[in-house]
Amino acid sequence: MKSKKIKLKIGIIGCGAIGSRMAQNIVKDLKDDCKLTSIFDIDASKSAKLKKSLSSKVIIAPTLKDLIKSSDLVVEAVNAINTKDIIKAVVSSKKSVLAMSVGKLLGANNIFKIAKKNKCSILIPSGAIAGLDAIKAAKLAGIKSISITSRKPPRGLVGNPYCLKKGIDLLKINRETLLFNGKVSEAVKAFPQNINVAATVALAADVENLLRIKIITSPKFKTNSHEIIMIGNFGKMISRTENVACPDNPKTSYLAALSALQTLKQYCKGTFIGT
Ligand SMILES: NC(=O)c1ccc[n+]([C@@H]2O[C@H](COP(=O)([O-])OP(=O)(O)OC[C@H]3O[C@@H](n4cnc5c(N)ncnc54)[C@H](O)[C@@H]3O)[C@@H](O)[C@H]2O)c1
User: Fold this and answer.
1) 197, 226, 230, 252: which is the annotated catalytic residue?
2) Residue boundaries of the structural domains of the chain
3) pTM for this prediction
4) What is the CATH topology of the domain spanning 8-123+255-269?
5) Domain spanning 132-243: which CATH class is it, in words?
6) In angstroms, how far is the first alpha carbon of the chain from the final one?
7) 254 in ligand 1 pocket by Cβ < 6 Å?
8) Which residue out of 12, 15, 18 has the highest number of ligand 1 atoms within 8 Å of its CB and is therefore the one to mutate?
9) What's the average pLDDT block by block, 10 residues per block, for the chain (275 residues)?
10) Are 129 and 197 in contact (CB under 8 A)?
């Protein structure tokens, strides 16, 4: 008799652009490895819309606590000031989490300690960059310098609090302009929605103090690109991604969505190659 495979139960917190994309992909592409069981959003209309769009049976959890309780692994895709508390609540309940809001985890050592104590995992996808594997390996022998230069079209940054505070009218920019040059801890505060990749690099290789971030915009840029230059005892690495937007969501780089899905797939299968 064929034994029934026990599938990992996945819950998603945040039914916006990323959460919805993840939900669709889990149902369609990861159906052999896991099962989307519940979703939750503070805005009930978002969770209702997502549930309607899904072909599989999914429960809208009445509360965050209910979602965590019913899941083996929680996908965090929340855009809120209390995202850190949400991730903390997941690992405090001894459940693993795939965190998308990586910037919120910078300096959150207590959350990593709780996860370790509770023997659960915090999964962080590489996002829209390449070379994270090399950065982690290079760290073992010492990194001397590392920088990320992100180039984004102005329209992709509209509404950014840092630009508003500085009085920068993004739509009036008519040439290549350096918007930010500084530390990763300042970059994630200034560009919370745009610079998760920098936080991912900082966390992956523990290079927060070394890492320099530049954010450049120009109406000539058609894609979001990220260039990483690293020098260490291993030699030199230059990586560059030129990202197209998700086919169904212009706000998100396609590679970021794909990397989240791939991270989840590896976790379900328990096989980690090149990570
Ligand atoms: N790591 C990466 O590569 C990467 C890529 C893209 C986006 N992100 C991050 O993922 C997160 C989600 O991005 P998005 O584009 O889907 O944002 P979004 O604004 O489209 O969706 C966020 C959702 O969170 C919900 N929400 C807000 N507060 C909540 C709360 N307290 N509890 C439950 N739900 C709540 C909102 O109602 C909304 O539906 C952001 O933090 C973004 O920076 C990361």
Assistant:
1) 226
2) 8-123+255-269, 132-243
3) 0.93
4) Rossmann fold (3.40.50)
5) alpha beta
6) 36
7) no
8) 18
9) 77 94 92 94 97 92 97 95 96 97 94 97 95 95 96 90 92 95 93 88 91 96 95 98 84 89 91 74
10) yes
